[in-house]
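Hi support team,

I'm opening this ticket because the web form for multi-chain structure prediction keeps timing out on my end. I have pasted the exact lines I submitted so you can reproduce it. The total is 489 residues across two entries, so I didn't expect it to be a heavy job. Is there a limit I'm missing, or should I split the entries? Thanks in advance, R.K.
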Amino acid sequence: MAELSLAIPKRWQPASVWLLYVVGLAPAAWTFYLGATDQLGADPVKTFELFLGIWTIRFLIATLAVSPARELLGWNYLRYRRALGLLTFYYALMHFAVYMVLDQAMDIHAVINDVLKRPFIMFGMAGLAMLIPLAVTSNNFSIRRLGKSWIWLHRLVTIIAACGALHFALSTKILDLEQYIYVGLIIALILYRSWRPIARSRKKGQGRTRNRAMASAS
Amino acid sequence: AAALSAVESKYKVDEKPTPIKDVTTYNNFYEFGLDKGDPAANSGDFKPLPWTIKVDGMVNKPGTFDLEALIKEFPIEERTYRMRCVEAWSMVIPWDGFPLASLLDKVEPLGSAKYVAFETVVRPDEMPGQKGFFQSLDWPYIEGLRLDEARHPLTLLAVGLYGETLPNQNGAPIRLVVPWKYGFKGIKSIVRMTLTDQQPKNTWQVTNPQEYGFYANVNPAVDHPRWSQASERRIGESGFFGASRHPTLPFNGYADEVASLYAGMDLKANF
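Hello R.K., no limit was hit. The queue was backed up. Here is the completed structure from your submission:
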C-alpha cells in the first residue's frame, strides 16, 4: 500500500507528537481562561462543560479515523493515534471534573443519583470508565508486556465510541444538525471497524496483527 | 428598544434581578437558532412592529387587536418574577406588561371555553431557525393554558423588560409569562390566541411527550428524565468557581397564589 507520510523530517517527528498534545490541550486551557476571567457568557460553567464534551467527541472521531485514513486513503498518521486517544481521555476526564466540581459543586449524592437514574449519564460514565484502562496501557511497555491482549483490550474503543455517541445524542432536547453529523461519523467508523476484520480474514497470511502492534509501539 | 411607562405593582420578588446583559443574551428561542446566544445574534432582521393579535374561538367578541392600541388601553405594570427554565437554570426578570385576564375580559370567553391556545408568528424570512432543510421543531410554536390559569392575576402578557420594549430575542413584541411554570410555557411573539374546549397540544409535549407535559408546573419533586429538578443554577449570579445553586421551590415560589388551582391533582402524572 502506498503510504503518504507527513512531510516532516524524521528527527522532528517526536516533537510533532508533543506539539499535538500542546495544540490539543490549548482549546481547554483557553476556554478555562475565558471562564475564569468572566468572558464565557451568562452560564459559564455549562458552556465550559459542553465545550469539553464536544471536544471529547472530536478527538474520539479523530482517533477512530486514523486506521481507515491509512487503509482507504493511504494517509499515515499512526504515530499520532496514541496522542489523539489520550487527548480523548483527558477531555472526557475534564468534562467529568467540571460536571462534578463546578456544575454539581461536589454534591456526591446528586451525582450518584444522576448516574443511577439517567441513562445518558450512565453511558457517559461507562465510556469514561472504559477509557481508563486504555489510557493506563497507552505506553510502549504495556504494549510489549500485554502483547496480543493489548490489542483485545484496545478494541474496547468501539464500545467506548458507542457509549460516547449515545451520551451525546441523548443529552439534548432535540438532535441538531451538528449532532447528526458527529453521531453519523461515529456510527460510520464503528461499522468500518466491525467490517474490517471480516474483510481481512478473507486475505490470508498477512501478519497484520504483528504489524499493527509494532506500528503502535513506534 | 423604546422606553415604556410602567406603574409599580405588588408583584415583585425580593431577589436581585439578573443583569440585563444576561437576560438578553442567554435565550431559548428556536425560531432564531438552537444555541443560547443565537436569538441575540440572529434576530436583527425581525420586525416586531406593526403587530396584531388575533383572538378567536369560543368568545363573544372575537377580533384582531393592534398591539400599540392594547398598550394604550391597559396600564402597563412592572413585575419582577422568578423565571425557571426546565433546563434547571433560573433568572429574576423585571417584566413590563398587562394581565392576560384584561385581554380575555375584553373578548368575553363563552361558558364552554376551557383552554386558551397560543401561537407564535411564522416568518422564515426573518427567523433563520424556520428556514432551510433542517428545522428543529414544527412551526408554529404552540402553547396552551387552562382558562383558570390564563385568568390568574400572575399570568402576564409582557411587552417589555427592564422598562423598555421587548428585545427581539426575548419574544418581541408580546409574549406570555407564567411565573410558576417552566419557561417554555412562556410563548414568544404571539400572533394568535384561540379559546377552546380541547386541551391544546403544546409544541414540546408533541415533540417529546416523555419529557414535557401540558402543565409544566415548576416542581422540585418531579425530576426531568435527564436531570434533577431539585435545584437550579441562577444565571448571572454564579461565577465560574462559586457555582450558585438555589433549591427549586414548588410552583417556583408562587405556591401560596397558585397551588389551589391544582387541588386534588396528581402532579407527578400531570407534569
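A quick check on our side: Chain B has seven helices and 13 strands. Let us know if the file doesn't open in your viewer.
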